[in-house]
Amino acid sequence: MMEAILFYILASVAVIAALLVITRANPISSALMLVVCFLASAGIFAMLGATFLAVLQVLLYAGAIMVLFVFVIMLIQTDPKDLKKRQMTFGKLLGAAAAVYLAIVLGIAVWRPPFIAAPQAGEAFLTPSTIGHQLLTTYVLPFEILSVLLLIAIIGAVVLAKKKI
Amino acid sequence: MMITVHHYLLLSIALFVIGAIGVVTRRNALIIFMSIELMLNAVNIAFLAFARWNLLIEGKMIVLFVLAVAAAEAAVGLGIVISIYRNRQTVYVDEMRLLKG
Predict the structure, then answer these.
(1) Pick from A137, A38, A163, A157: nearest CA to B38
(2) Looking at this predicted complex, what is its ipTM?
(3) pLDDT digits over A117-151, tens only?
């Protein structure tokens, strides 16, 4: 019962914040609402037994990435008056309708089959030590590729944002 | 009242579709980026729900990798937005219709 109440609170906060993200005209409001959405999903992660990932979500997403977003918005935004007016076009309506259709199809596909009602016995808690062990044994190749990817991203971001190379 | 894997998956679908609507309807490049982050986050919830219900560790490890790739993507994407803004003085994607740099 407690779990259900917690789930509905976190889920409704996440969905409402996500709706606000895509409807606000000012990017700053969107960014702040995105932080709320990420915090609610961190709660969902913790409910699913991934406490370490919930902490990472708060630190990485709600912390680092959103600071980066707000920083860029502050850099390039001039005046709230310069924000463009909303306009409805046929293409947008079509795209939104296609997305809603996707939601219906996915919802039917998820709801129909008899999934396992209760989680299997035992808790699969992911402790940081397990993660470290897994990263250096089973997932050592993806881990190394990821480190190279992050290095490329750092260099790429600097090169892109630099005025003269 | 039991919370089943369906509930988590429906939440994931809702967030994913909201993100998709944001990508197709908004013109501000920054908000399009935020919508993409929303979609990545929704997929993470689905991965974690399946990992929890089948007691698999793989789902959680994939989420770890998705988080790292999302960080890299945000850094490069925002670099691109800054670079476009410097050249065009706009972040609205409907004003970017030239392939010539």
Answers:
(1) A38
(2) 0.90
(3) 566 655 656 778 888 888 899 899 999 999 999 99
**DSSP state at residue A141:** H
pLDDT: which is higher, B3 or B23: B23
Q: Is B97 on the interface with A (CB under 8 A)?
A: no
C-alpha distance from residue A157 to each of A73, A160, B30, B70, B73 (Å): 16, 5, 16, 14, 10
Torsion, Cα of B44, B58, B53, A126 (10° steps): -90
Gyration radius from chain B CA atoms: 17
Q: What is the rounded (10 degree) CA torsion for A127, A133, A134, A139?
A: 140
Backbone angles phi, psi at B99, to 5 degrees: -85, -25
Q: For residue A148, count other CB atoms closer than 10 A to its CB.
A: 9
What residues does B92 pair with on adjacent strands? B28
Supply angle C-alpha B35, B41, B43, rounded to 5.
110
Q: List B residues 30-89 in contact with A (Cβ-Cβ < 8 A).
A: 30-31, 33-35, 37-38, 41, 44-45, 48-49, 51-57, 60-61, 63-65, 67-76, 78-83, 85-86
- The partner residues of B28 in beta bridges, in order of sequence, read B92
State the Cα–Cα distance between residues B64 and B57, nearest whole angstrom. Answer: 11
The phi and psi torsions of A162 (rounded to 5 degrees) equal -75, 145
